[in-house]
Prior knowledge:
The structure is a homodimer.
Chain A: H1 6-18, H2 22-30, H3 34-43, H4 46-52, H5 58-66, H6 70-78, H7 82-91, H8 94-103, H9 106-115, H10 119-122, H11 133-136, E1 143-145, H12 150-160, E2 169-173, E3 179-184, H13 185-190, H14 197-200, E4 208-209, H15 214-224, E5 228-232, E6 238-243, H16 244-262, H17 277-295, H18 297-304, H19 306-311, H20 314-317, H21 319-342, H22 351-379, H23 384-414, H24 424-447
Amino acid sequence: MLKYDASSLIEQIQAALENNDIQSVIRILETLKSADQADIFSELNDDEKMAILPHLNPAFSADLLEEMEDDEVAELVGGLPSEHAIRIVDEMDPDDAADFLGDIPDFQANAILAGMENPEDVRPLLLHPDDSAGGLMTSEFLALRRKMTASDALQAIREWKPDNDDIYHLFVVDGQNYLVGVVSLRQLITSDPKDLLETFMDPQVIAVTTGTDQEEVARLFARYDLLALPVVDHDRKLIGVITIDDVIDVLEEETTEDIQRLGGAQPLEQAYLNTSPLRITKKRIGWLLLLFLTESLTGTVLRHFESELASVVALSFFIPLLIGTGGNAGSQTTSTIIRALAIGDIQIGDAIKSLWHEFRVGLMLGVGMSALAFVRALTWGSSPQLAVTVSVAILTIVIWANMLGAILPILAAKLKIDPTVVSGPVMSTLVDATGLFIYFSIAKIVIGL
Amino acid sequence: MLKYDASSLIEQIQAALENNDIQSVIRILETLKSADQADIFSELNDDEKMAILPHLNPAFSADLLEEMEDDEVAELVGGLPSEHAIRIVDEMDPDDAADFLGDIPDFQANAILAGMENPEDVRPLLLHPDDSAGGLMTSEFLALRRKMTASDALQAIREWKPDNDDIYHLFVVDGQNYLVGVVSLRQLITSDPKDLLETFMDPQVIAVTTGTDQEEVARLFARYDLLALPVVDHDRKLIGVITIDDVIDVLEEETTEDIQRLGGAQPLEQAYLNTSPLRITKKRIGWLLLLFLTESLTGTVLRHFESELASVVALSFFIPLLIGTGGNAGSQTTSTIIRALAIGDIQIGDAIKSLWHEFRVGLMLGVGMSALAFVRALTWGSSPQLAVTVSVAILTIVIWANMLGAILPILAAKLKIDPTVVSGPVMSTLVDATGLFIYFSIAKIVIGL
Lengths: 449, 449
């Protein structure tokens, strides 16, 4: 419902830049939300960007840059005089500042840290990998004391003057900074101003340590409808807070990675068109080569049955059809099972249950496909024996593919390997070689080669 | 960090039930968060569940049931005396109550609505599909007036006594209930108590209408870091509010659907193990049959080249290898492109750019695969001509597969079809038939058949 015409705004900005009218540019950008500002800004060319950036105030720049791609930010800020860069980083949220400093060369990062007002907010965050709780948390948070009253707490919030919305769940610590509870801003407002926090806080706080993986963090937010999650050290002292806006980004990132893995490629770290073809090739070639080598087992199987093939050339007509259908059935199963594992619909202990489930699905699908394949083989003018061979083979292959698709992801999880390793391409490759073996074995029996 | 031992708790509950000690059961459940209560409760058998449910107070039951699977809730509440069911539904959030009433037979739903205290909160929500903004919104929200002061607004919140956290972004309306702004609870607390809302509210509110798709709703939350999103009618009158906890569930649901579609199956509506094999079969057989029919083009191609196949049987050894590799390369590409489209990294207008990107990726991958294939063919004892054929074919097929994988999802988006329709199985099927044609055409030229 909040619509803006990006291309017309970009033209207005470019026209203003030609007249050196930076004030108009700023006015146009100020009418937009940060995410939209970043989109418009990204569409400008590098010269235009660098003409505008030094004129924006640091807080405005920080908001804008926080919405942009990491690599683009690193390039832009790297081009600014270091004094200006320092003032922008000073205005960023500590977690975003730490992400940025991690993306630029060390000597630049150190120069910026040396000039910052509060480097101590950012420095500890640099120790943690981006995809861990430590990398997601901010060190800029307000910890409340258990002996405060509701009115003290509200006063503390007013004095802290938070400039963003990360204050709706507040964490309560004792005198030694141990995490002891959580209160919501709603509770602070609705309870008696004289009540002590410890009388109404929830002492059952869910917390994570810095090393917790971001996927687990996202799972906890989703499961317990959290708005903020405290991060503690091994003594359960409060050292940071993760807020929900960062978690939504994590969910998006994790989904992207899962989908790329399920397609049989390693995930890209950057936006697609910003990733060079060479880099994309590197992310894909490993799996492609490995699958090629595995797939060449099909050649071994075919050579093993060379005499059968030579005597009934028509056998080969059905090869792609049979192994293709098996691969498709396997991909259907594996993607369903992988996702069910990810959201907790099935656990490792459900292996047998899932196998039995997919056996029955495979049986029904197989019977359907097998009837169709029988008719198709006859209409292609195959002998009745060949038609029987094809239809028994497809039934067997579909059941086999479904069971393989059910068990492999669970097996991976059991071995602590990410189940997305059993991608669609992995499934079809595995089904290809084994499927051929099944097909020719059945052919030998039925046709009596 | 909040650990509990599910199986021990379940045993304790079952032991208490055998002694008819319902109070102990309730005490055990009360120590847990709602999501964990629901998990434990789901593990009990139907008799045990029905022994406990009537003894829980309606508000407790409502919290518990809101965390459970829709179909399980429909079954459980259907088994309760209708008076008890009415009191539980009365305590549910209106959006959850509407979802539940939509899942049970109409006559039951009408009986419950007739008995409810505030059926008018729920009734309008029943009109909207579950996966639209209207289906996600709650009608239980506090609208503030623009002429209120900050202190009036805080007082209104206290009087409203919200029992959940959906009050951190509050929407401001004028005398005719038109949406005019948004204020955050943070602003209410930190601004001067005497300031009118209209002086500090943000008048640029992002809003949606009831028909907006839930995927678009989730995208807006992620893009603008929202905690709540107002739903308006076509006159921009405020009629509901969507909160972030519902959106996290939507993100999870949409990801599940996308992953199942990318595996070449229609999405399941329920948890995997709760979906019968027959129902799963129905969700998969359509695509499997369609792909089978398309795949049978491979047979047509093979029969077309029957004489070549008969004269050089060794040609057939490479069939699965070549089309398998092409399918894998295509799946890698299509999953990357589909995800890039979903998160806005590429748009429909980037078709040519993406095609050129994937041409270069395909060229590099193809050259690598082609060298490997050449060596592999020679080590299998193939003639040099056959080895050349295979290696030229694999180069051509990989480039072809990559370009097809790039363009088809964008074409689907252009035609307003969900790009996930170009699933891995669809890609490999398309590449199979076309890849064979490429292979045999090259064979005819190189080997001179």
